[in-house]
Design a protein that fits this description.
Blueprint lengths: L1 E7 L4 E10 L5 E11 L3 H8 L4 H20 L4 E6 L1 H5 L3 H12 L3 E3 L2 H9 L12 E7 L4 E7 L2 E8 L3 H5 L5 H14 L6 E6 L1 H10 L6 E3 H12 L3 H8 L3 H4 L2 H15 L3 E3 L5 H12 L9
Helix pairs in contact: 2-4, 5-13, 7-12, 8-12, 9-12
């Protein structure tokens, strides 16, 4: 069965098409058919001006139309589409989502930060790790950061904060939002329980690639601090040249590291796993259940 998910984020829009596959034991895995990423960068308009410009709105509508054509080519019948922080804040966000639905037939749901955290948790990575530890999901996007704590083999707390890479670049994150996130982490993390971070988002995936670590290995907090210092000491143009980063990654990777390092320090987590999952993966998991899938999913 082919399933698809669309994530209209603050930095990029993503389309994931996956195919479910059942094992002899009855478990199901999702094989990636295609992943398309378009760097729309909606957040730069929204967090600076409060809405999307005509240019950005047109790019958004063309992207959704392109995704519609790909869905038709691949014969996808089941789709879940969501928009997050930038569209939540844009004064013309709802109107543009309605226009996209009228022009393409794709119904993109505007989801809250809490819902976004819930979909990311759908990947259930922590449930496959050691049972006697607490795990803190950290998903950093362009407009918001979602945190979900998994402790004693169940989800125990989750929250969303308007702290994202583009908001930081645009100096749109007040000090009290940082304090709110710090307080949440400090109050949610169990006392005397070892906490391990699980990172998602394009920036932590890129840092993992830069590290040369093998899949399944963790990154240390100290290594993230080193990358934050190293990458932050040069310009975005130099990051593009020396680290082979795309323009839409070179500017946001440093504020992303700032967020990961801060949260890990507050949680007293000295390592982070990077399973290369994100919102679109969680949407696929949720969609599978909605269309009648019952078997537990494998990663």
């Amino acid at each position: 069965m082919k399933l698809a998910a669309i994530d209209i984020g603050s930095n990029a829009a993503r389309l994931l098409i996956a195919e479910s596959e059942h094992s002899d034991a009855g478990a199901v895995s999702f094989n990636k058919v295609i992943l398309v990423r378009v760097p729309l960068r909606l957040g730069f308009d929204v967090f600076r001006e409060g809405g999307l410009s005509t240019e950005k709105a047109t790019a958004f509508l063309k992207t959704v139309m392109a995704y519609k054509l790909l869905l038709e080519v691949y014969g996808v019948k089941h789709l879940k589409a969501c928009a997050t922080s930038a569209m939540r804040d844009a004064r013309n966000g709802t109107a543009l989502l309605e226009q996209a639905r009228a022009e393409t037939g794709i119904d993109i749901q505007l989801i809250s930060g809490q819902e976004e955290a819930g979909y990311i948790y759908e990947n259930h990575i922590a449930e496959q790790l050691e049972k006697n530890k607490a795990y803190l999901y950290i998903d950093v996007g362009g407009g918001s950061t979602e945190l979900t704590l998994f402790s004693k083999e169940k989800m125990s707390a989750r929250a969303s904060f308007n702290i994202g890479t583009i908001r930081l670049l645009e100096k749109q994150v007040p000090d009290d939002e940082w304090e709110k996130m710090k307080t949440f982490v400090k109050q949610s993390v169990p006392a005397k329980e070892k906490v391990i971070a699980i990172g998602s988002g394009g920036n932590i995936n890129k840092v993992f690639s830069l590290s040369g670590r093998k899949p399944g290995k963790s990154l240390s907090l100290e290594l993230l601090k080193d990358y934050y210092k190293e990458l932050g000491s040069v310009s975005a143009e130099e990051r593009m040249h020396y680290y082979a980063l795309r323009p839409d990654r070179a500017d946001v990777i440093v504020p992303a590291l700032q967020i990961y390092v801060s949260v890990m320090k507050w949680a007293d987590a000295d390592e982070i796993y990077v399973p290369r999952i994100g919102l679109v993966d969680g949407l696929i998991q949720a969609l599978y259940r909605e269309v009648g899938g019952e078997a537990p999913a494998e990663q």
